[in-house]
Design a protein that fits this description.
Layout: H1 3-25, H2 29-34, H3 39-47, H4 50-63, H5 69-78, H6 83-90, H7 95-102, H8 108-115, H9 132-140, H10 152-162, H11 166-174
Helix pairs in contact: 1-3, 1-4
InterPro entries: DUF2857
Protein name: DUF2857 family protein
Pfam family, one: DUF2857
Length: 180
């Protein structure tokens, strides 16, 4: 961890501890106890001065990071991404599929892709030969005239059922077509 990250993490710990002490001093013991704090911890939070809380945050940060700043940063990056697009990205959507289902073009998907990682089962770019038949069986069971007419919910269901990425499924549906 870099010095800047350590300093930031310590500051985040201080802010959290300060807020917890504020809650304890304002009689929110029941809320703290419901979150797993025992009576001794709550008493300590009530008794610490601001300086002592600052020292405590440095001490905690030196032993164990209670708040992962990287996870917090990644969560903040994802706030602006619509939830249904997060699901598509987690299921390995390609840019072509995002364009088709959400009319998204340009560099935005690349920025979102950095913030949202596809799960291990959903990283393939094409359907493995051993799964082509199972995929088409699943696609043909959908209530649509042509597989290119499937909607977002249907392709999500197919991706989860077949454990294939949306990008691979969409590439299989479109074949070599440029208009897909």
């Amino acid at each position: 961890m870099t010095q800047q990250t350590t300093t930031l993490t310590s500051e985040v710990h201080w802010a959290v501890l300060n807020h917890l002490a504020h809650m304890a001093c304002n009689g929110q013991d029941a809320t703290l106890m419901a979150a797993g704090f025992n009576a001794k911890m709550i008493r300590q939070l009530k008794q610490h001065s601001l300086t002592e809380i600052k020292q405590l945050s440095h001490s905690i940060c030196g032993r164990q990071c209670a708040v992962d700043v990287d996870v917090l940063r990644k969560a903040l990056e994802m706030v602006d991404i619509p939830e249904d697009i997060v699901v598509f990205l987690q299921l390995g959507s390609s840019n072509k599929a995002l364009t088709h289902f959400f009319a998204i073009k340009g560099t935005v998907p690349a920025q979102w892709r950095k913030a949202v990682k596809a799960g291990p089962s959903f990283r393939q770019r094409c359907v493995p030969p051993s799964q082509v038949t199972a995929l088409w069986t699943c696609l043909e069971s959908l209530p649509v005239e042509h597989v290119r007419e499937i909607n977002r919910e249907q392709i999500i269901m197919v991706a989860k059922t077949c454990q294939l990425s949306i990008g691979a499924i969409w590439a299989e549906i479109c074949g070599d077509s440029e208009r897909c």
